[in-house]
Design a protein that fits this description.
10 helices, mainly alpha, elongated, 0% strand
Length: 281
Amino acid sequence: MADVALPVRRLPKGAVSAALVAVTVLAVILVPLFVPLDEQAVDLGAKLRAPSAAHPFGTDEVGRDLLLRSVYGLRVSLLVGAVAALVATLVGTAVGALAGALGGWADRVVMRVVDLFSSVPHLLLGIFVVAMFRPGVGPVIASIAVTHWLSTARIVRAEVLSMRSRPFVDAAVSGGASRLRIAVRHLLPGVLPQAGLAAVLMIPHAIWHESALSFLGLGLPTHQASLGNMVQAARGSLLAGDWWPTLFPGLFIIVPTLAVAGLAAAWRERLSPRRRSELTL
């Protein structure tokens, strides 16, 4: 009797990413409620202990539990990434919609400004912004927002230019609608899915940006639990053969960012092919 291949049920696209994102959000919300962290606490008698039942991720160079500090560091990274992505998306959406709706010389001026900002490397411009302030969450968010609104502006402008040639916009113009009314009532709602997708895709990039600034000593204060600070502090331990202070904070950077990127990719697939744009952040 011939073997009959049983159908294999596949998980919906993005389900694994959505589950990882949900677990990450729950962890950074619930863990601080039940296990407080003393940023200044040290235990030199327990420094650089390998992963064990008492410390699943081991301890760092001053005896602090790496699992707890990694969760707190991820909470800071997600907060910075989400707020910076929201601010950058709002700015980019406003600028892109304005340029696309006005057209003509206003469009050309706005896009030249975008090109000017784009000509400077993101990290270099971000370092310049944070260097003007004391280390803290606010300057890091401002640094990321200033350097990441450009791609959203381009995406929204392209979408607005595409929508301006559609019949419903021509009908609104024929009916005597003003440019402001057309932009607010017809063009802006049409670009919101793309703007939301750009914001989600920006969160992983913002997390890496914050970690890079903290690693360079320009982001958050060195005593604060931050994934970038933890990786920076663990460099000496890694050279001495103690791998866990670098590995686990690094995984806390990589895994959540891949999960958010996978969730955004699934969202992107749900957009109709007619309205899908290339998003390069």
